[in-house]
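Bug #77: duplicate submission created two jobs. Keeping one. Sequence:
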Amino acid sequence: DKSDVGTMTKLLEKTILEDKVDLIFAPWGTAMLYAAAPIATKHKYILLGGPGSALKLKEIIDKVPYFFSVLNMADTQIASLAGILSEVKVKKAAIIYIQDLHGIESRDRALIELKQRGIQIAFAKSFPFGTKDLTPLLKEAKAADVDAFLAFVYPDESFLLTGQAIELGYNPKVFFMTVGPFLAEYKQAFGTKTIEGVMGGGAWNEKSSPGAKKLREAFMKKYKVEPAYWGPLYMYSSLQFLEKAIEEAGTLDQTKIRDVMASKTYDTAMGPMRFEKGFNTNHPGEVGQWQNGVFEVIDPGKKRTAKPVYPKPEWPKKAK
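Kept job's structure:
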């Protein structure tokens, strides 16, 4: 779909109306899901919203009964992040965000959650897709002497920000980016030592559940690389859920499967999974942090697999 919403909607309708497929799977990204959910419902096709999330979907969820949102969202994720920042006694933060639904929703929640915890916000500034130089924003955060640098972005920007922060020698006590740090490619690109202490959205690891451990081992055996430590556990579990719902419905009739999905709880790789008003209620983790090569869940509460490291270690002199 070329990461274009208009192209995606045309292809989705073609897939349903012309190709007449039995099942459809979600496009990638928050804005994409928001556009796809009404189309799926119009044609009475189940849409598992795996790779993306949007709080705005809660406003229309009653109108999209065939949509099931799988990932955690800005409300739970940013609340957890704010809890972590409060725990380690962050006093001041800078926020940058990409100009789309993901960035805007995350910013809005951060402004609320950080204020409630008495954390000063030096600035909250946006930038457009395709920006290739984020050093002005990094320099502004450095000049503001913030404890925490928070970026609500996608992988391209996470890689860019990390590389440019290293070049500038900018090393805040908290370096957080939503979409990107959880990727195996991120770890491979910069090296285990370099990314030590970097925080990101997610999160899970093999300590999260027996099913998570099994999935990681199977993934590495098949693909010879680590899985990403956000979406894969959610999506794999949602497919296990769908499989069991189809088996229980005993048919590929979308409406009958939908009714089963809306009312059942099934055991999955990340534990018991169920949907309430179209939203998954089980999140293995909201925020992760790289610690000794492991993307640890550092959420406050029982799902934590490690305490947050604070302050983040300085970038190595020569990043690998």
